[in-house]
Amino acid sequence: MSEKLDSILKEALERIDSSDTTEKLNEVRVDVLGKKGKLKTVLKGMKDVDPKDRPAVGQMVNDAREKIEGELDFIKQKIEREALDKRLKDEVIDVTLPARRNKIGHRHPNTIVLGELERIFIGMGYEVVEGPDIELDLYNFEKLNIPANHPAKDEQDTFYINKDIVLRTQTSPVQARVMEKGKLPIRMIAPGRVFRADEVDATHSPSFHQVEGLVIDKHITFSDLKGTLAEFAKELFGPDTKTKFRPHHFPFTEPSAEMDVSCFKCGGKGCRFCKGEGWIEILGCGMVHPHVLEMSGIDPDEYTGFAFGVGLERIALLKYEIDDMRLLYENDQRFLNQF
């Protein structure tokens, strides 16, 4: 029995000393000290040992177990220490290297332009008002002097949820909601997302953004409209910018006009950017229709006003000379980081 224990101990210590991974050490632990290990087998054979020799044999088994467990722990610590030393050496940090730069978010061209528009009009005394994207037909059309049989209400142009609810096609409903509150005078702009049933191409999208403005007060004239928008154009495109108004038609304004600005690339001389005309169309405007005032409970004999609307994407395309509107929505960092 003594010779058998010596053989088990010698073999176990040799295997432990030659182990270079903790997995190999675990194999020795299971093979020698496990429930079905070699020392367990020796203990099962104690019934064949003379009773007077059993204490001595039991002590020998315990001594062998302690030596094996001690060596296992020692070699395990050695392997773990060597692995840690190697990892620290491989993962050494050079504190003289420059720090890694964190990637910081970047404002979208639309957001940059919107911030500039808001700055200009807030500087003129306007307030910024927002409204719901999902709007009642009553505010989106009826209160803006667009009757039931108007072409704009065709489902080819408008997203209808049901006959009374639409995705707003303009931010003008915000103006109607403010007017019906009756708190006069009014000087406001209404920026926001709008929706129209357009096919996606370089200049159209089913979802885009508008900024519409409204002024209601006593003695407001078309001259006030022209002066306001001329100042806006100079602030946005430069102090030498000129404006031109062309007659147009909008249901909620009368008279109505389209406003052009002199090309800020060529100064109005004519170039590729303005297609040789020297002028660029940027927005629609006009005096608020008296019937629109009446529907909102405002006396058109006492109050007058003007309104205007500009496409946010159009301003961004012009200001940054972008040829394709779709670039604004693709979220390509190579494109966005230019602004």
TrEMBL record:
<dbReference type="GO" id="GO:0004826">
    <property type="term" value="F:phenylalanine-tRNA ligase activity"/>
</dbReference>
<keyword id="KW-0460">Magnesium</keyword>
<dbReference type="Pfam" id="PF01409">
    <property type="entry name" value="tRNA-synt_2d"/>
</dbReference>
<dbReference type="GO" id="GO:0000049">
    <property type="term" value="F:tRNA binding"/>
</dbReference>
<dbReference type="Pfam" id="PF02912">
    <property type="entry name" value="Phe_tRNA-synt_N"/>
</dbReference>
<dbReference type="InterPro" id="IPR045864">
    <property type="entry name" value="aa-tRNA-synth_II/BPL/LPL"/>
</dbReference>
<comment type="subunit">
    <text>Tetramer of two alpha and two beta subunits.</text>
</comment>
<keyword id="KW-0963">Cytoplasm</keyword>
<dbReference type="InterPro" id="IPR022911">
    <property type="entry name" value="Phe_tRNA_ligase_alpha1_bac"/>
</dbReference>
<dbReference type="GO" id="GO:0000287">
    <property type="term" value="F:magnesium ion binding"/>
</dbReference>
<dbReference type="GO" id="GO:0005524">
    <property type="term" value="F:ATP binding"/>
</dbReference>
<feature type="domain" description="Aminoacyl-transfer RNA synthetases class-II family profile">
    <location>
        <begin position="113"/>
        <end position="330"/>
    </location>
</feature>
<keyword id="KW-0547">Nucleotide-binding</keyword>
<keyword id="KW-0479">Metal-binding</keyword>
<dbReference type="GO" id="GO:0005737">
    <property type="term" value="C:cytoplasm"/>
</dbReference>
<keyword id="KW-0648">Protein biosynthesis</keyword>
<comment type="similarity">
    <text>Belongs to the class-II aminoacyl-tRNA synthetase family. Phe-tRNA synthetase alpha subunit type 1 subfamily.</text>
</comment>
<dbReference type="InterPro" id="IPR002319">
    <property type="entry name" value="Phenylalanyl-tRNA_Synthase"/>
</dbReference>
<protein>
    <recommendedName>
        <fullName>Phenylalanine--tRNA ligase alpha subunit</fullName>
        <ecNumber>6.1.1.20</ecNumber>
    </recommendedName>
</protein>
<keyword id="KW-0030">Aminoacyl-tRNA synthetase</keyword>
<dbReference type="InterPro" id="IPR004529">
    <property type="entry name" value="Phe-tRNA-synth_IIc_asu"/>
</dbReference>
<dbReference type="GO" id="GO:0140096">
    <property type="term" value="F:catalytic activity, acting on a protein"/>
</dbReference>
<keyword id="KW-0436">Ligase</keyword>
<dbReference type="GO" id="GO:0016740">
    <property type="term" value="F:transferase activity"/>
</dbReference>
<dbReference type="GO" id="GO:0006432">
    <property type="term" value="P:phenylalanyl-tRNA aminoacylation"/>
</dbReference>
<dbReference type="InterPro" id="IPR010978">
    <property type="entry name" value="tRNA-bd_arm"/>
</dbReference>
<dbReference type="InterPro" id="IPR004188">
    <property type="entry name" value="Phe-tRNA_ligase_II_N"/>
</dbReference>
<feature type="binding site">
    <location>
        <position position="254"/>
    </location>
    <ligand>
        <name>Mg(2+)</name>
    </ligand>
</feature>
<dbReference type="InterPro" id="IPR006195">
    <property type="entry name" value="aa-tRNA-synth_II"/>
</dbReference>
<keyword id="KW-0067">ATP-binding</keyword>
